[in-house]
Every structure is written in structure tokens, then in C-alpha cells.
Write a structure and sequence with these properties.
Layout (H helix, E strand, L loop, with lengths): L5 H4 L17 H15 L2 E4 L6 E2 L7 H15 L4 H5 L7 H10 L8 H18 L3 E2 L3 H10 L3 E5 L4 H10 L8 E3 L14 H9 L8 E5 L2 H10 L2 E5 L3 H9 L4 E3 L2 H8 L10
Parallel strand pairs: 1-4, 1-6, 4-5, 6-7, 7-8
Antiparallel strand pairs: 2-3
Helix pairs in contact: 2-12, 3-6, 6-8, 7-12
């Protein structure tokens, strides 16, 4: 699967990993060019929140939230599906809960359980947002993008409220025109579903997917971008995840926002001596 962005794909088809392209250039020379070209053609930049903007959970497990959700659901639904019982991820558990509700709706399951589960996750996100640290270099990146006239939005599987709380605490609120978070009533619209990407593009209309790029750290981010026809830049400090993002079709992967700040800078024009 390759993330398609017509403007970029017409100009650069190297894979940005190892070796050389047809011109003999190495990945070390082609990937900076790839980053610059993608950012030059983008009018809108969409950022995932947890990862590229901040470390929301700071290494904390979301298992306690998942356990609380399961305890609540057992009280109201009694026996839970094996897929629900097996999940210890706060966000991942929302999907099997929704599947169980749909499959057993005739059994009279209370649909309020799904919304209450979402509320538990949101509360946990609020708790973490107060102590979360900004990603290194994110302020410089946002300023560089804004300085080049880019419009910014956040596209995330987190709830909108905790995201806005974090942005307010760190003076970033006015830098983003939209925050498109998790739909509290429909977890199936979380990434990799492209619904939140489409919402962001509508919020920043008129914006064509061909002139937008997303920065994310997960394969779910990449898949959402691909489905929406948006270019994708990976951000990861983990070599294995960076490799997976490249193999899945990311137009480029960086371990530091400094690389993107450099790509945003106007190219230097060399002048010959008189």
C-alpha cells in the first residue's frame, strides 16, 4: 500500500529507505528532498495528537481504564464477549463493545454502556493531559508551518476536550484551526477509518486532499491518510516502527521535528561570485 498524493507521486518515486534510485541518488539525499516537496505542495497539515504533538500517557498503561470499563459493562450487561474480556487497551476495547452491542441488540443491552465507556476513556485522557509533555521541537515546527502559510488541524482518536486542555496549557490553541477527535457515539470512526480526516478537511475548506499532508506515528494514521487521499509523513523515534511506516508507504519518516523544520525553511540560493 502506498500513500498517494498526486503532486508528490508525480515527482518522486524513491522509497526513502536504503540504496539508490534510478538517478543514482541515495536515500540520504532523496528523503530530505521528498520532505521539502511534500511540505511545499501542502496547504494544510494535519497532525495526530498523541505522539507528534505530545506524549499523552507518558508511558502509563491504559489498562486501568480498560479494567474499569469491563467492570462497568459486566454490571450492566452481565457476561461479556471474549473479545471484550481479552482487551486491556482503553481505546481498543471500544470496538468490541460496539460489536457486542450491535450483535446482541435484541437481547436488550443498554446502549448507554458504550457512551459511559467513552466517558471513562475521556476522563483518563483529561488526567493525563494535565501532566503530558509537548513533543520535542513541536512548537518550532508549528511556528515554521504557520510561517509558510500552512493551515493546521489535529486529527486524533483522543477525545476533543482533553486535546484542547493540553493545547491551552501549552499556548498552542490558536495555532490550530480545528481539533477533530473521537466520535463519542461511534468508535468505528476512529482511525484507521478516515472520518476524522474528512472532518478536518471540511473544517478547513476549501482544502483538497491532494494539497494536504498528515503527520502521524501509527499505521492507523497512515491508513486513514491513504483512505482520504492525503499525503503522509511518519514520526517515530522507534526504528522498528519507522521501518514499518516506510514499508507501508509513508512518503517519509522522521525521528525529530527538527528535520521537518529544516524542510520548511526556504531553500538557500547559491550566488556566484562576481
Amino acid at each position: 500500500m502506498t500513500a498517494k498524493n498526486p503532486t508528490l507521486d508525480e515527482t518522486d518515486e524513491t522509497d526513502g529507505t536504503h540504496g539508490t534510485d534510478d538517478s543514482g541518488e541515495t536515500a540520504e539525499t532523496t528523503e530530505p528532498l521528498r520532505l521539502r516537496r511534500l511540505l511545499d505542495t501542502a496547504r494544510t497539515v494535519l497532525l495526530d495528537f498523541d505522539g507528534p504533538v505530545c506524549d499523552l500517557f507518558g508511558g502509563r498503561s491504559t489498562r486501568p481504564a480498560a479494567l474499569e470499563i469491563k467492570a462497568m459493562a459486566r454490571r450492566k450487561w452481565n457476561t461479556l464477549d471474549p473479545a471484550v474480556e481479552a482487551c486491556d487497551d482503553s481505546h481498543g476495547i471500544l470496538h468490541p463493545l460496539r460489536d457486542m452491542l450491535d450483535r446482541k441488540r435484541d437481547a436488550g443491552l443498554d446502549p448507554a454502556v458504550l457512551r459511559e465507556a467513552n466517558d471513562i476513556v475521556t476522563r483518563y485522557e483529561y488526567e493525563c493531559a494535565g501532566s503530558a509533555e509537548p513533543a520535542p521541537g513541536i512548537q518550532s515546527l508549528l511556528d515554521s508551518l504557520l510561517g509558510r502559510g500552512k493551515r493546521l488541524a489535529i486529527v486524533t482518536n483522543n477525545a476533543e476536550g482533553p486535546v484542547r486542555r493540553f493545547l491551552e496549557l501549552h499556548g498552542m490553541s490558536r495555532k490550530f484551526e480545528a481539533v477533530c477527535g473521537r466520535d463519542p457515539g461511534e468508535p468505528r470512526r476512529m482511525k484507521p477509518d478516515p472520518a476524522s480526516v474528512h472532518r478536518a478537511l471540511r473544517a478547513l475548506s476549501p482544502t483538497s486532499p491532494a494539497h494536504a499532508v498528515m503527520i502521524g506515528d501509527q499505521l492507523t494514521d497512515l491508513r486513514a491518510a491513504v483512505s482520504a487521499g492525503v499525503g503522509f509523513l511518519g514520526y517515530s523515534t522507534e526504528p522498528e516502527r519507522a521501518r514499518l511506516l516506510r514499508c507501508a508507504g509513508a512518503h517519509g519518516v522522521v525521528a525529530s521535528h527538527a528535520r521537518l523544520v529544516t524542510a520548511c525553511a526556504p531553500p538557500q540560493v547559491s550566488r556566484s561570485r562576481p
